[in-house]
Amino acid sequence: MKKKSRNIKLGELQSTAICGNDIMSTVLYVSGISIGICGVYAPIILLIVGLLLFIYKGVYREVVETLPINGGAYNVLLNGTSKKVAATAGILTVLAYVATSVISSRSAVEYLTTVFDLPNLNLGFITLSPIVWISVLILLFFTFLIINGVKDSAKVATVIFGFHLITLISFVVLGFIFIATNPSQFSVNIQHTQNLFSDKSLILVLFLGFSASLLGMSGFESSANFIEEQKKGVFKKTLRNMFIGVLIFSPLVSFITLNITTVNDINTYKDYLLSNDALIIGGKFFQYVIVIDAFFVLCGAVLTSFIGVSGLINRMSLDEVLPLQLSKINTKGSFPRIIFLFSFLCISILLITGGDLLSLGGVYGISFLSVMSLFAISNIILKITRPDLKRYYKFPMFLVILAAFATMTGVVGSIILDFKNLLFFLLYFIPVFAFVRIYASRHKIMLTIHKLTKNSEKFNELTDKLLNHFTQKKYLVFIHKPNKLFEILKYINTNETGHTVILLHCKDKTDEANRETWKELKEIIPLIPKAGIFSHLHLQLEEIDGPFVPKTINLAAKKYKIAKNHIFIGSIHHEYNFDYEKVKGVRIIM
Predict the structure, then answer these.
(1) Is the separation of the CB atoms in 590 and 487 below 8 Å?
(2) What is the 8-class DSSP label of residue 231?
(3) Which of 145, 185, 391, 546 lies in the 20 to 30 Å Cα band around 431?
């Protein structure tokens, strides 16, 4: 069954469609947000956002092509720092996906209400608005679609994405025809913008407009979370395609909008702006086209969230940051437990908030921008902590720092725009963060309980069994340098619960230096427990015939019956004739 899931490989079109539905759906609302804050400067601000996306294209490409594993920022930080730091990135990404799913499904229904009269749903004990009950149906539909397999989902995403591109191109063409044949509203909007700035600092307004407009980048991180389902070389193409789409359409749509309607009207219709624009430039028929397109592409963004979160949570559970039971796979290559859990989380938040955009927007903006910032920071960390790691693409450090600074200021701007954004974000972040940290620290918690209940025979027996379950886990470390030994043991002691560590040295009879290393290891390792250093760890020094290559790693995994994510290695240097993709699943800790 696992073999079947690994064979799922998506091409450029399908992969771009999955990501594109998410990031290109932002065109439907980011123009209204941007214009509402910075008026006629919105097209320039959105152009700057597009250029920032170009920088992030380089940031993402360097990292993900170096470590092509599902998980995005979580995976990079796991290989460059510790589980606790990586878990924080994972939580933020999950929250961003939850908010994306709920907001996208809600906005899809919001567009429908502009042309269709949708009824309330009376359940007797409660009456649900169409915004809520149809959004729930959308979330349930994609729950079962994803469980049926990612390939079928990708086909749906491709059709949606193709229709969306055709619709956006039609919108731009009709928009410019309308501008050429009708009086422009741009001069009216210039005056409105001047009035907007009369009692405010221009720099502050542009900064806040930039911060809010960064939502136009939402979805760019999605491709990194299902990299393992993509064919080799596709990832960089998805980044390029998303960048081009945002750079072209977001500024153009805002420019057309500013020419055909006033800022006051834009603020009135900002939640379904393109529906109103379409009515002006193309009549009732084109409004229907835009509404149908908006509904499906926003649903496509929900689909992207389900696909992305599946890859991320699966990776987190395999690394024991979340319960391993979540990673059970079905015959279609999907993770039904992850998908049902995510769907439940989305629906419960939708029902609790009633789809309120204020509460959801706070989670959305801060989570998403924090994930982008963490990805840039993880790039910097990887450059510093793993400088020898084999890379096929290198991006300048100063541009990575610029990218991190830009999105971090966006987080600050989101909070300044409305302090409630931070409060709503913390309302969701703190419980999830607490659960993950408690789960990650379960061994230490159990150890404390064991000490406190040592006088109780019943509790002592129970905690003994649970502690044995944790400590019996084994780890395999490929070691070639004795001076790295303390660093290795410190990492395992900090991040893992098992006590058995197999230190494996690759034998090379023809290399004298290799044989000397083996002798040194045989002398040093028995002294470690005697010195009281990590004395609770059971160290086993073993030797295996053959060089350090993927075949040797696979043989060692089978011989010692250890899962790939419990195998630790040092950086894969350029002198090796293989890259990380050949050994993906193992963890780089040196």
Answers:
(1) yes
(2) P
(3) 145
Q: Yes or no: say if 474 and 496 are a contact pair by the CB < 8 Å rule.
A: no
The per-residue pLDDT for range 166-189, each reduced to its tens digit, is 999 999 999 999 999 999 999 999
443 to each of 165, 316, 437, 447, 464, how far by Cα in Å?
51, 17, 11, 6, 11
Q: Is 444 exposed, middle or buried (0-12, 13-18, 19+ CB in 10 A)?
A: exposed
Q: Closest Cα partner for 58 from 358, 383, 451?
A: 383
Tokens of 104: 């996208």
Condensed to tens digits (0 to 9), the pLDDT of residues 74-115 reads 888 887 778 888 888 888 888 888 888 888 898 899 899 888
Helix ranges restricted to H, 441-549? 442-452, 457-471, 485-495, 512-524, 527-530
Domain 472-588 CATH class label: alpha beta
Give the amino acid at 474. K
The least confident of 66-70, 293-297, 393-397 is 66-70
CA distances from residue 109 to 112, 213, 355, 404 in whole angstroms, order as listed: 5, 22, 11, 34
User: CB within 8 A of 584, min separation 6: which ones?
Assistant: 68, 69, 228, 564
Report, as an integer, the average pLDDT of 490-516. Answer: 82
Cβ neighbors of 210 (< 8 A, separation 6 or more) are 38, 45, 48, 49, 410, 413
What is the token pair recorded at 539? 């160290």
Q: How confident is the model at residue 575 (pLDDT cuts 50, 70, 90)?
A: confident
Q: What's phi and psi for 255, nearest 5 deg?
A: -65, -45
- CA dist 520 and 524 (Å) reads 6
CATH topology of domain 2-422: Amino acid/polyamine transporter I (1.20.1740)
Beta bridge partners of 545: 507
DSSP 586: B
Q: Where are the domains of the chain?
A: 2-422, 472-588
The answer to whether the CB of 480 falls within 8 A of the CB of 548 is yes
Buried b (16+ CB within 10 A) or exposed e, 199-238: eeeeeebbbbbbbbbbbbbbbbbbbbbbbbbbeeebbbbb
Q: What is the torsional sign of CA 473, 478, 480, 483?
A: negative
**Burial track 154-169 (b if 16+ CB lie within 10 A, e otherwise):** bebbbebbebbbebbe
Q: Please give the helix or strand (H or E) that residue 588 lies within, else none.
A: strand 587-588
- The residues, any chain, with a CB within 8 Å of residue 502's CB and separated by 6 or more, are 474, 475, 476, 477, 540, 542, 560, 562
